[in-house]
């Protein structure tokens, strides 16, 4: 493991690094299948854009953007984030992307999400973590429910993707709900 920040059973989470540009990171955001349900893949993602983004995460006080890495081989398979952190309202937006398609459906998103939400609630003292996703993104909806998130509502035609407007579903979980979920 190279500089782990949070350690799970099969993965560890670490800061993004400039050497992540040497892997498939840039390709993930240029892959229409990987970006099928998110706002990426609208403009080509370049090495310069990726490098600037990674550097912007180094000292951010309102976003915690991290790499998801397999313990067995140190392969960077995705990113996970708490972003738009509001320390007054004690809330943050959760986001996750598994870019390496060979690792979809293997539970790595669940493991990464539990680590990051636990950190958000227990170390950052957040009160509420929320996310939004396309009504077509069933895996993300399942993950939100797995995390104990409650559907708060829909934003009608909030996402333009594949030539049409799509509703998004908003979810959130409060600290006490998440702690209770962990106890089950």
Uncertain spans, ≥5 residues at pLDDT below 50? Answer: none
* Overall shape: globular
**Total of DSSP H or I helical runs spanning 4+ residues:** 5
The count of DSSP E runs of length 2 or more, i.e. the number of strands, is 8
Largest sheet: 8 strands, mixed
Structural class: alpha+beta
Beta-strand percentage? 25-35%
Main sheet strand line-up: 1-2-3-4-5-6-8-7
| H/E topology pattern | EEHHEEEHEHEEH
First and last CA, distance:
30 Å
Blueprint (SSEs and pairs):
Elements: E1 6-7, E2 11-15, H1 25-30, H2 47-57, E3 64-70, E4 76-86, E5 91-98, H3 108-122, E6 128-134, H4 138-146, E7 150-161, E8 164-174, H5 175-183
Parallel strand pairs: 5-6
Antiparallel strand pairs: 1-2, 2-3, 3-4, 4-5, 6-8, 7-8
